[in-house]
Amino acid sequence: KQEVTQIPAALSVPEGENLVLNCSFTDSAIYNLQWFRQDPGKGLTSLLLIQSSQREQTSGRLNASLDKSSGRSTLYIAASQPGDSATYLCAVTSYDQAGTALIFGKGTTLSVSS
Amino acid sequence: EAEVAQSPRYKITEKSQAVAFWCDPISGHATLYWYRQILGQGPELLVQFQDESVVDDSQLPKDRFSAERLKGVDSTLKIQPAELGDSAMYLCASSLFALGGNTGELFFGEGSRLTVL
């Protein structure tokens, strides 16, 4: 059964710092991996989608990489801002599921101080 | 901008009462998901629809939960009777397709926060 782990659970950084969030998954047989952002009490906003054949995706100050063979993904945030404070969730779609739904990690809660 | 609509945003109910949540996906999205998210945890799938058909409801507690998507557009998730442990955020998501296991990008609604007293 696919399991997704995110480390660290929480992270505090000063404004302007570059940072990396980590995601690992136990089964490398995935269709894709997605990174989401969630503000307190809100729904999820899709940040980046990486197909299994891709190595990375970029959007603005965000860059996500995927190493399927090692079961790892990283989300790199450049020049962090207080507005980046949120919980970041990683999710994968696996071959071993009956359906095609995403399996989520528990998230990393990021706090950027000004 | 197209979005997934959910209602109500907040619901407070007493144990043993019935509660229902509604979701309207982005127009044209064939695949619809209901997730449950307990505070501090990642979302967990309850049910997945492809058009009006259930694709996966293996994690849906069928003794008290039911879900339908009769015309393959909007969907309703019902809980009867509600229990204290059902307190959570109920999230609806949709995607344009789910072809051969590849979901494409998922879009989530704002969620429905349930509190059971």
Entry keywords:
heterodimer, A: about 110 residues, mainly beta, six-stranded mixed sheet, B: about 120 residues, seven-stranded mixed sheet, 11 strands
Question: Overview of this structure, please?
Answer:
- The complex is a heterodimer of chains A (114) and B (117).
- With 114 residues, chain A is an all-beta fold.
- Chain A has strands at residues 4-7, 10-14, 19-25, 30-38, 44-51, 56-59, 62-67, 72-77, 86-94, 103-104, 108-113.
- Helix content of chain A is 0%, strand content 58%.
- Chain B is mostly beta strands.
- Helices cover 0% and strands 47% of the residues of chain B.
- Chain B contains no helices and eleven strands.
- In chain B, strands 2, 4, 5, 6, 9, 10 and 11 form a seven-stranded mixed β-sheet that branches. In chain B, strands 1-3-8-7 form a four-stranded antiparallel β-sheet, with no helix packed on it.
- At the A-B interface, strand 4, strand 5, strand 9 and strand 10 of A face strand 4, strand 5 and strand 10 of B.
Mean pLDDT of chain B: 92
Low-confidence segments of chain A: none
Give start-end ranges of low-pLDDT stretches of chain B. none
Q: Note the main sheet of chain B.
A: 7 strands, mixed
Number of helices of chain B: 0
The value of Rg of chain A in angstroms is 14 Å
Termini distance of chain A?
A: 41 Å
- Secondary-structure-derived class of chain B: mainly beta
| Order of secondary-structure elements of chain B | EEEEEEEEEEE
Q: What's the main sheet of chain A like?
A: 6 strands, mixed
Q: Strand content of the residues of chain B, in percent?
A: over 45%
Number of separate helices of chain A: 0
The helicity of chain B comes to: under 10%
Strand content of chain A: over 45%
Backbone CA Rg of chain B = 14 Å
| Overall form of chain B | globular
The total count of strands of chain B amounts to 11
**CA-based shape of chain A:** globular
Number of strands of chain A: 11
String of helices and strands of chain A: EEEEEEEEEEE
